[in-house]
Specification:
The protein has 489 residues and is α+β, with helices and mostly antiparallel strands. It has two domains: 127 residues, Beta Barrel (OB fold (Dihydrolipoamide Acetyltransferase, E2P)), CATH 2.40.50; 253 residues, BirA Bifunctional Protein, domain 2 (2-Layer Sandwich). 32% of the residues lie in helices and 25% in strands. The chain is built from 14 helices and 18 strands. A hairpin with a 2-residue loop joins strand 1 and strand 2. Helix 6 packs antiparallel against helix 8 and helix 7 runs parallel beside helix 13. The longest helix has 23 residues. The chain is elongated, with a radius of gyration of 29 Å.
Length: 489
């Protein structure tokens, strides 16, 4: 197969050279044919009119002194008729064209005897000569990694995939529209940080040459920065941006991905629950035109009642483990029984979190999970009547966490203590424990009003689309094609 491809490539290189020998530029910077460029779909509506269209040659059919081509652009495909009697000597240039080449064509729009809307070409110009032949839609890229590596070809051959990414654009844009309509201000916060904060995750490390310091790529979309903005007098902010976590790859997780986080002053977690439910319905309707989905065997109706379920009670019902009383050994024994991996030296919060993740898989949702223990929520405000639990919620849909919000901790003394506990965990080897951020504590000492924050990643889109998260990323990260490690110098 590789040998055949190389032969075809050599033939195309010969055609390229022949074009140059004829002093025809195979890669011009503009269309030199006069006329206003129209899309193929618009051209089909312009019967008996002269049009100028451009796109990629999708197929070629020769019939003696007549050649038909299908020309494809982003809007669709239109048939082109080339007649030797009309084009004279220029007709011979068609022999130097192949499927995959980009072409500009002008002529009258006609209807053939077969009823096909067609441009009867009177002039054409090659815009790009393709050297590598495209795989056919039937025998094209079938291997998953090859599709990801040559995503440009995958997109070209797969209309459904292109539509998927159009929907993803609508997904984020509709979320942005919703928040702006509710009075939130879109902000930008640093991607490079001295201290990686705002989440439990292992960060990527990079080096800043000019300052000669190591920095972290952010693991949250500006959580601690947006809270600083609350200290600084803003009351509603949000950011949609990339964040980075040096963790494993699976159907739900990537190392770099898009997340939205918003922060709302003078509101608590119950206020943002109402806002988030409204936002999810708005975004789903705008993006997919429905509130009903089937995801991984779960039937999910976002239009149904969003009930609340309790963290401790749900675990007790499913495992007979009471997290408010259970010891680390009891949690480990339950994890062993369920064949769930865990770190032998893991703190209680990590063990509880691992156990919960195995239980949530059976929950179709949508539900709000509430009543989280403080051990798994280092940035959330404690419940006044039950201080061992926090004012936090997670949205569970189709067995996965698809959103996380809470009443933000604004007690600087409590926050400093929790950072200290997280730092102790880091020193014991927990790479996902949060780093101590003394500047953030200092900001809280100036006073932050009651604030509720919320974050959701593109995992929500992948779930609603019924795809793995890698499939919903335009260019997912892959190893180098030769399989060798890249050594940074």
């Amino acid at each position: 197969m590789a040998k055949k491809l190389e032969v075809l490539r050599e033939v195309r290189l010969e055609k390229l050279q022949k074009l140059r020998d004829l002093e025809i530029n195979p890669y011009p910077s503009k269309i030199n044919i006069k006329g206003k460029l129209v899309s193929t779909v618009d051209a089909k509506r312009m019967l008996e009119k002269e049009v100028l269209a451009a796109g990629r040659i999708w197929s070629v059919r020769e019939h003696g002194a007549v050649t038909f081509m299908d020309l494809k652009d982003v809007s669709g495909v239109i048939q082109i008729l080339f007649q030797k009697k009309a084009l004279e000597d220029k007709y011979n240039l068609l022999d130097l064209l192949d499927t995959g080449d980009f072409l500009a064509v002008s002529g009258k729009v006609i209807k053939t005897q077969a009823g096909e809307i067609t441009i009867d070409a009177t002039e054409f110009q090659i815009l790009t000569k393709s050297i590598r032949p495209l795989p056919s839609s039937w025998f094209g890229l079938k291997d998953e990694e090859e599709r990801y590596r040559q995503r440009y070809v995958d997109l070209l051959l797969n209309n459904d995939l292109r539509e998927l990414f159009k929907k993803k654009s609508v997904f984020w844009q509709s979320m942005r529209e919703f928040l702006i309509e509710k009075g939130f201000l879109e902000v930008e916060t640093p991607v490079l940080e001295n201290t990686a904060g705002g989440a439990d995750a292992n960060p990527f490390i990079t080096h800043h040459n000019a300052l000669d310091i190591d920095l972290y790529l952010r693991i949250s979309t500006g959580e601690l920065w947006q809270k600083r903005l609350m200290v600084g007098g803003f009351d509603k902010t949000f950011e949609i941006g990339r964040q980075f976590r040096n963790e494993g790859i699976d159907r739900e997780h990537l190392q770099d991905y898009t997340q939205m986080e918003f922060y709302w002053a003078y509101a608590n977690y119950e206020d943002t629950m109402k806002l988030v439910e409204e936002m999810y319905k708005y975004v789903a309707e705008k993006t997919f035109g429905t509130l009903k989905f089937e995801i991984g065997g779960h039937k999910v109706d976002l239009g149904s009642e969003w009930k609340k379920i309790n963290y401790r009670e749900t675990l007790l019902k499913e495992t007979d483990i009471d997290i408010s009383k259970a010891t680390g050994e009891e949690l480990k024994n339950e994890l062993k029984k369920r064949k769930i991996e865990y770190e032998e030296n893991g703190e209680k919060g990590r063990l509880i979190d691992s156990l919960w993740k195995s239980v949530r898989k059976n929950i179709a949702g949508p539900v709000f999970l509430v009543g989280h223990p403080v051990e798994v929520s280092p940035l959330a405000k404690r419940m006044e009547k039950s201080p061992e639990f926090v004012e936090r919620y997670q949205i569970i849909i189709a067995g996965s966490e698809l959103g996380n919000g809470y009443s933000e901790l604004n007690d600087p003394i409590d926050q400093a203590k929790r950072f200290g506990e997280q730092e102790r965990m880091r020193k014991k080897g927990d790479l996902e424990a949060q780093m101590e951020d003394s500047d953030f504590v200092r900001a809280l000492e100036y006073g932050m009003p009651p604030v509720s924050g919320f974050g959701v990643s593109e995992r929500l889109f992948s779930y609603l689309a019924g795809k793995s998260i890698r499939e919903t990323v335009l260019f997912p990260l892959l190893r180098p094609e030769d399989g060798k490690k890249v050594i940074m110098k």
